[in-house]
Specification:
Chain lengths: ~110, ~130
């Protein structure tokens, strides 16, 4: 990805994630005080899964670009930087993929 | 390519602390914290998917003092990063570069991030 694209993607992903993440934290605070049944009941709502899928996909994407930007400033060895970027890319795909899979099949 | 002789980018230890630099640094730190927050969210959803016993363990942690501290911490980190992000949007549009304005918007962001955290916690817990 070239720098202007990163710049644009970072802003677009921020705009998409912003309203959803505020809503999600409100729900997290609410459900963290509730029991298992209330939580699974909420998780099985299509609105919750749709928003969570968008949030995790776009959120981890935003985090990946941001973290690479930090690596660019602090890691001066090209090899280590490439490995760090590759690991970040891997994690930013695997973690949301696993979570979305369990969300879709278990609830 | 030998990069080791290039100057190291953000000279954090050299500059005098100012609101502008403080917010810039904390924006990055909260960005990293928010990544941990996303992982925390994933673990939360995941643990509920693995069944009641496992979720109850995780829930026990969430309901403890430590758990509340973690949730409030991630809420503030998200609030702060989001609000400084909005401040960045205004800069992208060409507004707010004057030193006075930038310092003022910085203070507004700090105060609003705390306010948003309190509002989210109180409304989430049904206290307001």
């Amino acid at each position: 990805m070239k720098a202007p694209q990163k710049w644009a993607f970072q802003r677009v992903s921020a705009l998409i994630v912003s309203p959803f993440i505020v809503w999600f934290f409100y729900i997290l605070i609410y459900l963290s005080g509730e029991n298992y049944d209330a939580v699974t009941n909420f998780f099985s709502k299509p609105l919750f899964s749709s928003i969570t899928i968008i949030l995790l996909t776009v959120g981890f994407f935003h985090a990946k670009i941001g973290l690479s930007e930090i690596f660019e400033d602090y890691i001066h060895n090209e090899k280590i930087k490439n490995i760090a970027n590759l690991l970040t890319l891997l994690f930013s795909i695997v973690i949301p993929a696993l979570t979305i899979t369990i969300l879709l099949y278990k609830f | 390519m030998n990069n080791s002789k290039n100057p190291l980018s953000p000279h954090l230890q050299i500059y005098r602390w100012q609101i502008s630099s403080l917010l810039s640094i904390v924006h990055r730190i909260t960005g990293i914290l928010n990544l941990l927050g996303l992982i925390f969210i994933s673990v939360w959803v995941f643990s509920a998917g693995l069944g009641e016993n496992l979720y109850e363990c995780f829930s026990f942690l969430l309901k403890s003092f430590f758990g509340k501290f973690i949730i409030i911490g991630f809420t503030w980190s998200m609030s702060f990063h989001l609000l400084t992000g909005i401040r960045h949007f205004f800069w992208d549009l060409g507004y707010g570069y004057e030193i006075k304005t930038a310092n003022f918007s910085g203070i507004v962001v700090i105060a609003s991030s705390l306010l948003l955290t309190v509002i989210l916690w109180l409304s989430g817990r049904g206290l307001i």
